[in-house]
Amino acid sequence: MAAGSARTKKDTPDMHVLTRGEWAFLVAIFVYSFIPSVIGLLRIPELLGGPMLVPSNPRAVIDPVPIVLHILGSALFCLVGAVQFLPSLRRMRPALHRRLGWVVAVGGGVSALTGLWMTLAYAFPQALQGPLLFWARIALALAMFGFIVWAVFAIRSRYVPRHRAAMLRAYAIGQGASTQTALFLIVMIVFGTEPLGFPRDGLMVAAWVINIAAAEILIRRMIVPRSAIPRAM
What range does the domain containing 27 cover? Predict the structure, then answer.
C-alpha cells in the first residue's frame, strides 16, 4: 500500500513547476517585450498629470485616454499572453488558463481597437506615418481584433486547434512593436540615424511581416488538420 501511495505521489505532476524550456520561453518574451512595454507604462504618469519620465508626445497629452488604454491593453496582451502558450499551464491548470484567457482577449481587443482609433483620429507627420503605414495599421488592427473574436468562438465550440492558431496570429500582430524596436535598434546601430519617411514605414511593416511569417511556421508545426487552421485575413 505504501509503495502504491508513493508511486501515485511521484506520478502526480507538480502544478507549480514549469519546465526549463518554458521558463526560457517566458524570459525571452519578457526581455523581447521589455522596451515597448516599459516605455509605454512609463508614459502613463505623464498622461495622468504626473512627472514626464520619457520624451513628451503632444498627441498623447492632447487626447490621452486612447493611448493609456492602448498601453495597458498591449502590455496585458503581450506579457500575460506569453503565459497562455505554456503547455504545462494548459495541461495542469486549465481553469487558470481559461481565466487568464479572458484577460488576454480583453487586453488584446482593447489594444487593437484603440490602435485603430489612434490611426484614424490622430494627425501624424508624414515623416512618422505615410500611406503604407496608415493602411497597414488599419488592416492589422482589424485582423488582430478579428482573430481574437475568432479564437473566443472557436474555444467555446471546442475547436482547440483553430483557437490556438487564431490566438497565435493575433499575438504575432500584437507583438509588432517589439520587433519594430529590434529592427530600429539594428538600423540605428548600423547607420547611426533613425529612419524616417518611407524607410521608417517599410521597416515597421516588415516587423509585422516577420512576426506573421513566424506565426504561420509555428502553426504548420502544430500538426493540425488544414481544415482546423483559419485562413489569414
Answer: 18-228
Domain annotation covers residue 5 = no
- pLDDT of 84-141, one tens digit each? 888 888 888 888 889 999 999 999 999 999 999 999 988 777 777 889 999 999 999 9
Residue 11 lies in a domain: no
Are 140 and 173 contacting, i.e. CB atoms less than 8 angstroms apart?
Answer: yes
92: its cell numbers? 495542469
**pTM across the whole model:** 0.81
Nearest of 53, 202, 230 to residue 136 by alpha carbon: 202
Q: Where does 117-233 show beta strands of DSSP type E?
A: none
CA distance readout (Å), 110 to 1, 21, 31, 51, 148: 55, 30, 23, 26, 11
CATH classification of the domain holding 129: 1.20.120
Rg (the chain; Cα; Å) = 20
Cβ-proximal residues to 76 (8 Å cutoff; 6+ apart), any chain: 103, 104, 106, 107, 108, 111
10 lies in some domain: no
13 within domain boundaries: no
Number of domains in the chain: 1
d(CA 206, CA 38): 23
